[in-house]
Amino acid sequence: MRPPRAAGLDVGSNSFLLLVLQQGDDGREQVVLDRADIVRLGQGVSATGQLDPEIMRRALDLLADYTQRCADLGVQQIRAVGTAALRSASNSAEFRRLARAETGVEIEVVSGQREAELTFAAVSAERPLAGKLLNIDIGGGSTELSLGRAGLLSKRLSYDLGANRLTEQTGPHADPPSDEQIGAMRAMAQAMAREASAEFDSRGVEAVGVGGTITTMAAITLALGSYDAQAVARHNLTLEQIDALVDRLAALPLAEREQVVGLSPKRAPVIVAGAILCAELVRELGLGSLGVSAGGLRYTLAREALAAVVSGAGPAGDGAPATE
After folding, report:
1. To which H or E segment does residue 209 belong?
2. Is the CB of residue 301 less than 8 Å from the CB of residue 316?
């Protein structure tokens, strides 16, 4: 007889992430499946205001594959949320209707602040600290910052700028990007980072980054030929390393960038913008380095869903940490 199993699904602007957890005999959670696929659901939304029909179809096919994998694994509940792309697109409701009809998955679209809460809950559970935790989540369509301690969230904000959106709003790009285009990306990233630095007191905090941009930067720095979540999560990115990555990646044509060890070819078109966002946030917030988390909001979703399955309570709760 299989142990209780549940899944969390992050329907992101750049990547879809699926996590399946089970409760072991000792009562502890165990990871059964942790999968990430770059979909680029938010591609073009900044310009058109809509999800592209062809990308929607690829995304729906992937969701069908996910739900079949979950069925094969005996998953009893899937909790899914959509983020920036589904917040912004005028045809978001149509995509969610098709997802429900074709796969049975009900996708809840969450606000940027809610997204920050879910991510903070996941990272703070992974790193229980006596002091303050500042979490930075650079996504495809938005960036979230959250601050708190011991699971108590004191502030969270969301900015409508992520790796995909920054790339598109300063494009089309030369190959490699021109100095002017790099300057434009830096200017937009600096403006956002200055807003963040005015809102968040980073003195005495442990800063931890999450999301595909940041884990990819760690994987490139470590020259990981295949992704190793444990190695990534043990790494700290210094500002010097981040700046060096920006310079290195921005100098490469796309075809060469796709060959960089540790970088998925599908992420290569937006990694320069993501790295610039990271660099400017670390600089403006006065952080010497940034820890790396390989987790994310899918962990909160899966944990809440698993707790509901174990308790027989039905649909999972909201997964929010307490706020001051």
Report:
1. strand 205-210
2. yes
Which string of b and e fits 70-88 if b means at least 16 CB within 10 Å?
beeeebbbbbbbbbbbbbb
Count Cβ atoms below 10 Å from residue 305 Cβ, excluding itself.
Answer: 29
Closest-CA residue to 40 (of 65, 67, 13): 13
Is the distance from CB of 134 to CB of 207 less than 8 angstroms?
yes
pTM above 0.85, yes or no: yes
Please give the single-letter amino acid code of residue 190: Q
Task: Return the CATH superfamily for domain 5-111+297-323.
Answer: ATPase, nucleotide binding domain (3.30.420.40)
Q: At what angle do helices 271-284 and 239-250 cross, to 10 degrees?
A: 150
Token readout for 235 is: 């790494």
List pLDDT tens digits, range 247-302.
999 999 999 999 999 999 999 999 999 999 999 999 999 998 999 999 999 999 99
In the Cβ-directed half-sphere of 261, how many Cα atoms lie within 13 Å?
7
CATH (residue range 126-292): 3.30.420.150
